[in-house]
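Case study.
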Amino acid sequence: MSDYPAVRTLMGPGPSDIHPRVLQALARPTIGHLDPQFVALMDKVKVLLRYAFKTENPLTMAVSAPGSAGMETCFTNLMEPGDKVLVCINGVFGKRMLENVTRLGGIPVVLEFPWGEAVDPAKVEQALKADSEIAIVAFVHAETSTGVCSDPKPIADLARQHDCLTIVDTVTGLGGIELDVDGWGLDAVYSGSQKCLSCVPGLSPVTFNDRAIAKIKARTHPVPSWFLDLTLVMDYWLDSEGTGGKRAYHHTAPVNSIYALHESLVMLKNEGLENSWQRHAAMHQKLAQGLEALGLELIVDSSIRLPQLNLVKIPEGIDDAAFRKQLLEKYNLEIGAGLGAFAGKAWRIGLMGYAAREENIQLCLGAIKETLAEMRS
Amino acid sequence: MSDYPAVRTLMGPGPSDIHPRVLQALARPTIGHLDPQFVALMDKVKVLLRYAFKTENPLTMAVSAPGSAGMETCFTNLMEPGDKVLVCINGVFGKRMLENVTRLGGIPVVLEFPWGEAVDPAKVEQALKADSEIAIVAFVHAETSTGVCSDPKPIADLARQHDCLTIVDTVTGLGGIELDVDGWGLDAVYSGSQKCLSCVPGLSPVTFNDRAIAKIKARTHPVPSWFLDLTLVMDYWLDSEGTGGKRAYHHTAPVNSIYALHESLVMLKNEGLENSWQRHAAMHQKLAQGLEALGLELIVDSSIRLPQLNLVKIPEGIDDAAFRKQLLEKYNLEIGAGLGAFAGKAWRIGLMGYAAREENIQLCLGAIKETLAEMRS
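After joint prediction, the assembly is written out as follows.
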């Protein structure tokens, strides 16, 4: 066997630590993507994803590619050229939404917020009142680049009042913080497998409600992607649900990754969704207290802080890259670099999924303490 | 552990049997997608893919999604709206190329061939002579829906003479039959991980030469996909090659699937590319003789037959679905149904990668013989 990778503790912005059960599931023998046993597993994954998203949406599934493709699935299907989209930007992933809109021929209306702050519903309301042509409101629930949580419900309420659809990024949110797709009335939502679900990277759970599907069915332009066209993907994921019957071939599903996602969702269900949120919150409290005891400063205000992604200000005089390198090489501990406005200014310490546990906090705090002391001596 | 899938022998059109070494590699502990160890592994994967494709193209890598996304990567980057594309269709996957062209605003010139026949270079030449505006020639090397091999070299020669780029589908070809990307002058080529490479489904190896890259760099319209935009993907896969240095973050790579791809490519290299082609040819001969001895007819003429995918005419009076169900349930053997023009008329028996071995042929011939006898009695 060649090139066995190091065993790391993953406390960056994702991928996060993966439970050995999930890795074992991943390595089960591959079966055909149209095998009745696999079709039955897809049905189970849909049911479990609905649980995780808190939705009854039939069109809830995993896109066969990373979160970026989940984002693109939303924009490429829901938006037509010429559609006006309000894009709320408070970090890297809001900017990426804007990239999607402009590349696909949408007309963006950009609402920018300072990095480290949440999307302000009052500003969203102003923008919607100022422009009645806006058809879609796009925003990030859990901004992975800043560690900020924006509150989806008031934004979704406003969008509906103004007859707009919402596209919501919760790549880092799903399983880690409260999310209530149906209760909050979110229309199109995408996530990633490799964050708080503790699954391998490469899949993007998505869910679409009837309003979103109606918009897709009313399209006048073809979806500019065959691979991501939901009207085709639906035939593969939804046909004859629960019957284990034959489905239309679309593409070859990443069978083994679906095994892993299933196992991670079973584990989430066993723990209980609310318990998982609670665990992330509790581990965050503990980490935050420990970091503050070391004299470190958390950048994001505690009222809008994501428990699963902690932005820590790099102390004066500490070399960012050298510090992270030491953590990686000496302790096999990965923490994340800052992105965008926070590059070189902050570390991103993730507590996602299986990584949000007591032993990781001890390792992380201990390694940081020792490394800071060494670098300062 | 929940829901352990059956252990199948995969002799359909893919996914194919996966060597246990590849499954073990898949289950190695996940590391970060920017970890120096992972970056070094990506470099190894690029070198091994160049070996498999027979190319020196620096831009040789794996798209983080199935073969359909590899196809889309080629069209979405190389073709601009208004570009005229000669699409050669002799099966399902040529039709899918046409879908890509039309959805992305290209102008297709369609050249259709009967299912079960190869792309005829003489017809390609006629079409290119008849329309000097054609900018791209798209065709399938190994048509998975019909089991037909088209000869890429004369088509590529003609394309170059007429100042056209080629986009070539060899999803089922790579590793199973002769392929010489540089020697044949192919410009943009895509494949899949789950066919003759015996890797898990979910990745699409691709390679682009300088002519293809020049076309991408000369674009006047933005690539309508952020996820598949090669100018961005390149920054992640190519920056500072060989240095193990830092790369630009684009998306979170499917780390574990890359472990598996690496292992399958190491195995291909160890066997030797030409030896792998030879093994597929030899196993095909043996299977074909065995099937003919059972009175079964191979549909595709032996001169253009893909050894790794055998179209077998369903004998009169045999119920297609019941027959395949029996193979699956009694022998855990998957063979493929016919697609498109061959639906209900043919079976597709794959001998791809690790599935192309003596024990599989014995199982397949034995199970078919017994099942035919039972159904006829």
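Observations recorded in class. Residues 64 and 254 of chain B are 6 Å apart (CA to CA). Chain B touches chain A through 77 residues (CB under 8 Å). We will return to this complex in the next lecture.
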